Amino acid sequence: MKKLAVLFVSIFALFTLVACTPTLEDLIIDFSESQQKTTTIRVWMDDTDGLFMADLIPAFNAVYPDIEVQFQHMGALDSRDRLKTYGVSGNGADVFMFPHDHLSLAMLEDLVYQLPNELFETLDASMLDVAMDIATAGTRDSDQPKLYAVPLSIESIFLMYNKDLITDEEVAALTSWEDIITYSETFKTENPGKQLLTTNSHWADNYYLQTVYSAFGWRPHGENGVDPTAVGFESDELLAALTWLSTELKPVVTGNAAYNSYGTTPFEQGNAAMIITGPWAITTFEDKIDPDGEGKLGAVALPNFEGIEGATNPASTFAGSQMVAVYKYSSNKEAAIKFVEFLATPEAQNILYQTSNDCPALKDLSEIEGIATDQYMQVMLSQLATSIPMPTIAEVTYYWAAAQTMVVNVWDQGADIVTEQKKAEASYLASKALGSK
Fold first, then answer.
1. What is the model's pLDDT at position 393?
2. DSSP assignment of 3-69, as one string?
3. Disulfide engineering: 151 pairs with which of 12, 120, 131, 395, CB 3.0-4.6 Å?
4. What residue ranges do the domains of the chain occupy?
5. Tell me, what's the pLDDT at 21?
6. Cα 339–378–76 angle (5° rounding)?
7. In Å, how far from its chain's centre is CA 169?
8. CA end-to-end span of the chain
9. Which pLDDT score is estimated for 223?
10. DSSP 127
11. Which pLDDT does position 10 carry in this prediction?
């Protein structure tokens, strides 16, 4: 009887053990998520309110769920210096943003990682040529093009006007600079205390003046803007351009006053009908001049130089672009490259336009919602069709101050132009020599 009891207990225990044992299916563990490695990249973008990145990061993670993006707002003008300071300690960024004219400096400072050739080929087919000219630092048409950054946006100057002061029909009739100059006197007579045209900067800003220089056949640093040996200040073409500026344009925009005597304020206050500006000013002007959205502002491309002796070339403006690059010493280059590549997709570019009102750098804008009816973007895109890239060589850093001094002396003091050209070239060479030490 005792043995029989033991037998029943043993059988009962066996059934209990079997019933509680997990099946083979229960023992299979899915490691696909628990073991998936997440890479974290730190991204510095000039996005003060974080609106762009708030929409961009989820869109990026929908494609790359294994890459975590840590966003930090960093002014585009500050990123290089901050990266030089914090990058070496590992507290910098894997991806950073900067304006076009900082590219050469970032390269010299050993901050930029050259992106893969495959990415160059992809972007060269989809991004605007002038944007790729900038992103490749002038190597795009060479035998060995090199991509240093992804162009996030593109920009150029154009004309905006106040419809309370000048009608669409009147603006449409001002197609050339000769028209502008002739009508300026008429406008001033009919509108005492007001002026036809002003600038969003000042009249010695050579970024704005490039359209004049181009028309007369001159651009800094040689034919393609990549000659570091000289600016080329002492040219007959620049002499002709400066002569036209001082004798024809100056009288109607500043008269005998200084180069910086008449800028943005008159337009904002309704005392100037037209202004040479760019996309960076659109929101400010709308807030000040057309806060109720009544359509008081218009936009057109810059005038041509038809009928002006010596100005027989396209009046090309400088094109600018915001660049995004991978930090050369990033420990997460593969993930960082995927992020900057994503920035060039129609999805990311559409987010950029919707949140920042920046102009995408894509050739095909069909997937950018609303841009086809955006008067400012359409005018700027038409202007960009003939724009040239701002020089990206490091030596262009020394161009701006020498050029501004040259124009100021001619504009304000009526200085001899040929003498000022020589002084500008000498100043450039001296600054370059000092900077190379």
1. 86
2. HHHHHHHHHHHHHHHHHHSPPHHHH---HHHHTPPPEEEEEEE--TT-HHHHHHHHHHHHH-TTEEE
3. 131
4. 37-154+320-389, 158-316+394-435
5. 52
6. 40
7. 32
8. 106
9. 86
10. B
11. 52
Question: CB count, 10 Å around CB of 237?
Answer: 18
Does the reported pTM lie above 0.90?
Answer: no
What backbone phi and psi angles, to 5 degrees, belong to 23? Answer: -75, 170
Give CA separation, 125 vs 105, 176, 231, 358, in Å: 27, 34, 32, 21
158-316+394-435 folds as D-Maltodextrin-Binding Protein; domain 2 (3.40.190)
The list of the chain residues with pLDDT below 70 reads 1-36, 436-437
Residue 215 DSSP label: H
Residue 306 tokens read as 């038809």
The amino acid that residue 175 corresponds to is T
- CA distances 220 to 134, 265, 420, 433, Å, are 15, 30, 15, 18
Q: What is the pLDDT of residue 437?
A: 63
The Cα–Cα gap between 107 and 111 comes to: 6
Q: How far is CA 346 from CA 69, 149, 169, in A?
A: 20, 17, 36
φ, ψ for residue 410 (rounded to 5)? -70, -45
